[in-house]
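Changelog-adjacent note: as of this version, every example in the card shows the full chain rather than a window. The one below runs 170 residues end to end.
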Amino acid sequence: MLYSSKKTPISQIVLIITTIIIIIILSLIILFNIRIYKINGTSMSPTLMEDEYVLSYRTQYKRGDIIAFHHKDVVMIKRLIGLPKDKIDIDDDGTVYVNDKPLEEQYLSSKSLGKPEIDFPYIVPENRYFVLGDNRADSIDSRNIYLGSIAETEVIGKVKISLIPLKLLS
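Full-length structure tokens:
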């Protein structure tokens, strides 16, 4: 085997490192089913703002997570409030109760009952989730018969990261 005493040019090293980083990123995207979405509307404000970009990935979901899901060929993003078999109640001032305990919701700028089209208390069916927008006065969510509770199979992923730099590109 012959060895050369020539040094590798910096541009080749940068190209190799860049290629490795791209391969790692693409592998993570495929492995975790990562997707990027642009927020349309104000139903999740103040947490997520219109025209903001977010990233979602598959994982285990728990109460309080923001999730992306399919509904009639549209991707929607809401906060997961109720798990299967949970008892959900919302009083007139907008306080949400899960299994008779008030939900602490520091992410809300104001509470609102909204205009529910379902009866409370509501028991979340098996294999389904109850979701609400953070802007309760202006959100189509599980309180509405149009959306209702979300099937576990409709969930795309947990919304975790706001991609603020991409917002500047739109």
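Structural remarks: DSSP finds two helices and eleven strands in the chain.
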